[in-house]
Amino acid sequence: xxxxxxxxxxxxxxxPTFWIPLVFxxxxxxxxxxxxxxxxxxxxxxxxxxxxxxxxxxRLMGQLSPWRDANEFWPLLGIGLFAAAFPxxxxxxxxxxxxxxxxxxxxxxxxxxxxxxxxxxxxxxxxRWVFGFWxxxxxxxxxxxxxxxxxxxxxxxxxxxxxxxxxxGLCVVAAYVLLGATWxxxxxxxxxxxxxxxxxxxxIRWTAVGMVAASVMLGLANAGIFYKWSxxxxxxxxxxxxxVMLMCFSCAELLLxxxxxxxxxxxxxxxxxxxxxxxxxxxxxxxxxxPYLILDDMTLWDGTASVESMQLVLSAAVVGVPVFLIFNxxxxxxxxxxxxx
Amino acid sequence: xxxxxxxxxxxxxTTSLSFLALFMALAFALAWLLLFFKLRAHGSGRAGxxxxxxxxxxxxxxxxxxxxxxxxxxLIQLGxxxxxxxxxxxxxxxxLIGFGVLSVxxxxxxxxxxxxxxxxxxxxxxxxFSVLMVAIGQAAALFWxxxxxxxxxTPAGATLIDARYRVLDWSEVIFNPSLGWNLGLMVxxxxxxxxxxxxxxxxxxxxxxxxxxxxxxxFKTALVVAVLASTLQIPVLNGAAHVMAEHQPxxxxxxxxxxxSGAMPGWTLAGLPDSRAKSNRYAWTLEHAGGAWLGRDExxxxxxxxxxxxxxxxxxxxxxxxxxxxxxxxxxxxxxxLTAVLSLRRGLDPASLPRWWLRVMVGLLYTxxxxxxxxxxxxxxxxxxxxxxxxxxQTEVLGTTSTTALALGLAGYGVLYIVLxxxxxxxxxxxxxxxxxxxxxxxxxxQ
Lengths: 341, 447
Known about the structure:
The complex is a heterodimer of chains A (341) and B (447). With 341 residues, chain A is mainly alpha-helical. Chain A has a single domain (20-303), classed as Formate dehydrogenase/DMSO reductase fold (Up-down Bundle). Helices cover 81% and strands 1% of the residues of chain A. Chain A is built from 14 helices and 2 strands; from the N terminus they run H-H-H-H-H-H-H-H-H-H-H-H-E-E-H-H. Chain A has helices at residues 2-9, 16-48, 54-71, 73-85, 87-95, 98-120, 126-152, 159-187, 191-221, 223-230, 232-257, 269-289, 300-303, 307-331; strands spanning 292-294, 298-299. A two-stranded antiparallel ribbon of chain A has the order 1-2. Chain A starts with a helix and ends in a 10-residue tail after the last helix. In chain B, a hairpin with a 3-residue loop joins strand 5 (386-388) and strand 6. In chain B, helix 1 crosses helix 6 (179-208), helix 3 packs antiparallel against helix 4 (124-153) and helix 8 packs across helix 9 (315-343). Chain B has one domain (3-434). Chain B has 447 residues and is mainly alpha-helical. In chain B, 69% of the residues lie in helices and 6% in strands. Classes of the chains: A mainly alpha (341), B mainly alpha (447). At the A-B interface, helix 3, helix 4, helix 5, helix 6 and helix 14 of A face helix 2, helix 3 and helix 13 of B.
């Protein structure tokens, strides 16, 4: 497949102009996949804060604390890599997404500052920063959702599409809530765990709605993607992915519905199922778009800088990736465990 | 073309970049001052230096958090406000942005945790080493941001081919003509921002109660830094002005308020530049003094604003932001020297200063920060109408985002920046009165 791609571009597969963009694309995909899940549960817990009783909010924020340092870096690294590796596509993509990106930037900024300032603030002011963290999480999720909606509609701006992107935005909020709730379900016990299960069951429906809507729109609004899906090989993949996703949804729902009888050793399962779900969806999106950054308009090879610049970025990545891996393996080594008190 | 979106985009980008610059500057300078405190604590063994470290590390942490958070909006705005820009300068800017983000990532992931939360778990020297690495990381991040910011002012080492910059020589790109002076200015202004913050807060404490050792040490260090940095400003500003005159003559002419080419160049101290009458009203001018900082053509004639047929920065704003920079710089020079003279006999002890002088110092708390802001605004506004000096205009890279969206975005950023600055300010004054309580990050694992 690699050789075929290279041939279609008229270059040798060993040519740096061919493989460096592919490496960057892979890294970028890993960053997005990691960020959606790991920064995702963080966002989800943030959105859930007002639904928890006032006394529990501090505990919830404390739950996130060990991973905050690692979590908050995914978006910055992702955007940095996108800018450095695909500068020619960067402006074209970002220029069409001003609104949702601004919402996301505001949200992320408010989130990270609220979290750090809350730790150092005096007790009577802490609730304000908890509120800030909630607001920031909501704005981040909504912004990312609208971005997803824009990508699914192929950046079309007619009125109907606008409402569609808002709906997808809300569904992504639900998806992050689901992720946060299943993480809490795994992490806590007792009353908070029962609450988490209830939140998760509310969110799971809207997540499913959003995923179906986004996929349908992706196929219908973009002729190129519809064509790809309807090829014999493509159809098989699409149907396979859909079946697996349906199974993930039902299993997660069943597990959450039986809080008391779900065995302690299986409580990590809903969270993992959610991760699988979101990764499948991202993989589906990547499969549908590849090799385009902007569908039928700009491939990843059109989006990269000159070879010399790419090699510089690659050398930075060679330094960055090992540090990144070691740091994250260390930081996330106990993310699946139970809370220790 | 409608002027409103352009104006909104300019205001928004300038605001975000200034906010980032302010807290990057504070975090950078505080990191190096903290390193000094740590080294003195090792060297002298006196508890006061450790106390000074304990107190000021809090404001380093808050500045760092704000700077880190402010980086994301700047990056996102760079892409979404000026979508055409990266298409043209991506070959240069891409790697520079990559290096900047990587520096911050490495410093934060490897060393910051140890510096802020690990003091009890590692040996004192390992901790000091982590402070050193954080300080170096801060310097590296600042360096890459400044390389890009200087390169767009004086684009060297690359050439425009098919409307895209191709890099010819990376060392020329990085060490472009204005980098050195810009770097010098940024370092000095950062140090002044941190030093005047420390001086002001310590003066406030001295007004309320007798000072402890740590506060006296911090005051002394900050005073020496302020005296040195505010004096060094003079040659560095002069150097930066010469580079500006050579490479950005339109900016130099606007900064001087020099309208007609060939006229005798005075140096206008103050006045109201009037773009209709093409002259300065109420001008207060030093005759014959301004020539050194103006651009010249081949015949050595001075280049005035009339040479640029409108392609020059807004004169009033450029003129006045520079006056603000110079005025505040002079004020800091005066105050730091006077304070040093007044307290020299008592070993730079703030207790020897008269109360009204301490109040003046409290009032000047944010002067250094304001210079960083004004300097940033001057360098950005002076670029207009270009996004890359003399080759790419802002108009041609501006996106098609609607005026409403831009206005809403600007309002959102504005409110958030004000809230965050207010919060920083509130925590500063609370800590000045009650001191800081060490924090630890709670959670499932020790951080």
